[in-house]
Specification:
With about 220 residues, this protein is an all-alpha fold. It has helices spanning about 5-35, 55-75, 80-85, 85-110, 120-145, 150-160, 165-175, 180-190, 195-205.
Length: about 220
């Protein structure tokens, strides 16, 4: 008889391994592109006129260069053993995550107004940027006030927004297999990259455990 708990454990570990691998891949991509320059195998199609817009250019470069940092640093923060055994490292890494992701969301909001394929993806990118900024700031303020559970809940939502960078590329790749419309694929991906994820995180962190008492860190 198959041990259901063992199967569930294996499936969970496989998904964790896949998620971490994708975080590393997408998180390192901006720095690989920066290193390889024109030798990078993927061509990015942007309107040449955009490069003349100083606001877009500065925001885009800052968003691309800093965006990989919270994606790379975020996932170990949710490992219980790391939180327990490396408290100081958890705090220091958390500060870097908060700082870089807040800047990333601000720049993401600014460049969303110049998004390809119209207002639908632009609105999607702007919305997830605002949610990412709010949840990250709330997570930071709650830990400053020693509200551990609220800090954890908001940081899960924050990283859900951060992980949209991974989901966006996954959804686009999957949609390209069934649709030849680049515009439609892009518009759907701008929303599908984060809406389902945040709904699931919200359910498990807030709705499902709404009766759970909030703990306070002792002095």
């Amino acid at each position: 008889m198959v041990n259901q708990f063992k199967v569930a454990w294996i499936i969970t570990r496989l998904f964790q391994f896949l998620g971490i691998s994708l975080c590393l891949l997408v998180g390192l991509m901006p720095y690989v592109i920066l290193y390889l320059g024109k030798k990078f195998p993927i061509e990015f199609t942007k309107d040449p006129e955009l490069y003349k817009n100083r606001l877009w250019y500065i925001s885009f470069i800052s968003h691309a260069s800093l965006g990989g940092i919270p994606l790379l640093l975020g996932w170990p923060q949710f490992i219980p053993s790391f939180q327990r055994n490396h408290v100081q490292a958890h705090r220091r890494v958390g500060k870097v995550y908060v700082f870089t992701f807040l800047i990333t969301t601000i720049n993401g909001f600014l460049i969303s107004f110049f998004a390809t394929h119209g207002w639908i993806p632009a609105f999607g990118f702007a919305t997830v940027a605002l949610i990412g900024f709010y949840t990250t700031l709330q997570g930071y303020l709650h830990i400053r006030n020693r509200k551990i559970l609220l800090h954890q809940k908001f940081m899960y939502l924050s990283y859900g927004c951060c992980f949209s960078a991974v989901n966006f590329r996954l959804v686009q790749s999957l949609l390209s297999l069934v649709s030849n419309s680049e515009k439609l694929n892009y518009q759907i991906s701008a929303w599908a990259a984060w809406v389902p994820t945040l709904l699931l995180v919200y359910y498990f962190q807030f709705f499902r455990k709404k009766h759970r008492k909030v703990e306070f860190k002792p002095n």
